[in-house]
Every structure is written in structure tokens, then in C-alpha cells.
């Protein structure tokens, strides 16, 4: 079973400890809204997570450059990802 984790706000170390404990290797993480501020977080970089996505329009609106570990996607791609996963969790 795969889960899509939608992270919508900038997070602290405590938040990332929670995320890390709940994310499995087949899950995906999407950063959107203010969650884009986490794109270059050392917590996500340390994970070296292969299924990390950022809504390009949201990151661009916040002038956030994307690191090598995050893939830029559109809102349409987000809909596709939601359909490809068994569950989704929105982190606010």
C-alpha cells in the first residue's frame, strides 16, 4: 500500500521526525503551498528520498530554487499522483 504525503507548511525538526517515521520507501512526498520552503531542508536532503515532488508554480511564487532531490511537477501531475497512490495524508 502506498501513501502520498502532501506537506503544506514549513516544518520544524520535530515535524520531520514525524514525517520520517511514517514514510515508507514506496511512498511519495509532495511539497505545496508553504511546504515548498522545505524543498532544500537538510532533513529531506538527508532522506535522499526518490519520490519527492514540488509543485513548480508554488515554489516559483516563493522564489525557492529546487535542489537535486526534488522533482518539479504541475498541478495536473499532482492529480495523477493522487490517483496512483492508495492513500493520501495532508500535513498542515
Automatic annotation (TrEMBL):
The GO biological-process annotations, alphabetized, read as: tRNA wobble position uridine thiolation
Show the InterPro entries listed in the entry.
DsrEFH-like (IPR027396), Sulphur_relay_TusB/DsrH (IPR007215)
Pfam families in UniProt: DsrH
Q: Output the Gene Ontology cellular-component terms.
A: cytoplasm
Q: Which residues cross the membrane?
A: none
- What NCBIfam families does UniProt report for this protein, alphabetically? sulf_tusB_dsrH
| The protein, known as | Sulfurtransferase complex subunit TusB
Q: Which organism is it from?
A: Thalassotalea marina
Amino acid at each position: 500500500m502506498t501513501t502520498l504525503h502532501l506537506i503544506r507548511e514549513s516544518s520544524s525538526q520535530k515535524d520531520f521526525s514525524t514525517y520520517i517515521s511514517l514514510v515508507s520507501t514506496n511512498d511519495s512526498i509532495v511539497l505545496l503551498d508553504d511546504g515548498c520552503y522545505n524543498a532544500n531542508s537538510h532533513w529531506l536532503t538527508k532522506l535522499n528520498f526518490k519520490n519527492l515532488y514540488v509543485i513548480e508554480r508554488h515554489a516559483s511564487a516563493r522564489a525557492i530554487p529546487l535542489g537535486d532531490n526534488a522533482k518539479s511537477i504541475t498541478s495536473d501531475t499532482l492529480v495523477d499522483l493522487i490517483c496512483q497512490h492508495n492513500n493520501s495524508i495532508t500535513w498542515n
